[in-house]
UniProtKB/TrEMBL annotation:
InterPro entries: FAD-dep_OxRdtase (IPR006076), FAD/NAD-bd_sf (IPR036188). The keyword Secreted does not apply. It comes from the Bacteria. Residues 7-397 form the FAD dependent oxidoreductase domain. Pfam families: DAO (PF01266). This is FAD-dependent oxidoreductase. Gene3D superfamilies: D-Amino Acid Oxidase, subunit A, domain 2, FAD/NAD(P)-binding domain. It comes from Castellaniella daejeonensis. Keywords: Oxidoreductase.
Amino acid sequence: MNASSCDVAIVGGGIIGLSCALYLREAGHDVVVVERNEPASGASRGNAGALAFAEILPLASPRIIRKAARWLFDPLGPLSLPPAYLPRIAPWLLRLWRASWPERYQANIRAQVALIGLAQEEMLAMLARTGLDRHLHTEGVLEVYEGAQRFAAAQETARQRLAYGIESQPVQGAELADLQPGLSPRFTHGMLVPRWRNVDDPQALAVDIGLQAQALGARLLRHEVRAIEPAAQGGRLMLDDGTALQARRIVIAAGAWSHQLSRPLGDPIPLETERGYNTTLPPDALDLRRQITFSDHGFVISPLSCGIRVGGAVELAGLKRAPDYRRAQAMLDKAKAFLPALRTEGGEQWMGFRPSLPDSLPVIGRARRHPDIFYAFGHGHLGLTQSAATARLIRDLVAGQAPAIDLAPYRPDRFF
């Protein structure tokens, strides 16, 4: 292949695209990743570092729908929606509501279980064979609750996890204090989820995966893809400098911008953007033993090698609205109240775009009209968690092999 052609072109250099590049290059394909910014500089940079192998419950759930009316129009709440954005997002919200219907909800849980089961298997194997397991931590996650009543309400989540073999350990009193010294006494109960894993720095891991792919021969082009022109076999990526890259196969893994490329191809996939906020404090800001989830407040605090990260929540506001960093500050203020020893000086605020579909499942599969174009996007909060599984499935599809799991729940045409 010459510089203007390749076997597989991957649009997007985040954790999904870089993982696909590694898997495809390991399989012997000539791979080019096209990324307009530095690799892993978007959502892959600012996430909480969780390999959330216990996170099987979709956002579109009866529990969230019940709380949504109270949360949505609180600008600093766990789930917020600027009123001016409501007309644009209304069709997506309607799909979200339908996805929460009991039969669909249970089907979506089964689909998450299948994908996350593959994700755990593939991620741990990939980290081991590349030597990147040095990034991995296994302390689990501690979910904390204020009082017995809030904890009792969380038991349904624990029961649903246990039904799929995911264990949780209830803790309270001195045991809870031992797991995280200095936690405010308002948190009387907790749930330790051992199957949860974390990485020391999500951006560093994604960059290292990309470097592994490049060491095997994958190429990186720093360009924006303006359009994709399909052909009888593959197609051409039209780049921002007026040049084109010819590819036999194309993988669209551009995160929150992916639908802008899929729509002209005949797939108007209803992708929305969960804007996430965080503040990363210096590493010595707190003696944090493991990631803590404040479930009723919609945020987490994570120990990373780059610092203590306080972040989460969901703001449904699209790609163009200016960031509202009051949300990051509100979470930081709560973290200080919940962990009084936390030093909040010297933090760096961040906002990023999580690509989200209304049923909380990603799109993994072929474009409807173009069998040599593949989609790998829409992972919401679980991009890091599901990255290796997605790469495995894309590798299977490109090779013409039977996918490792049934792809019907993730097919691009499920919304049409």
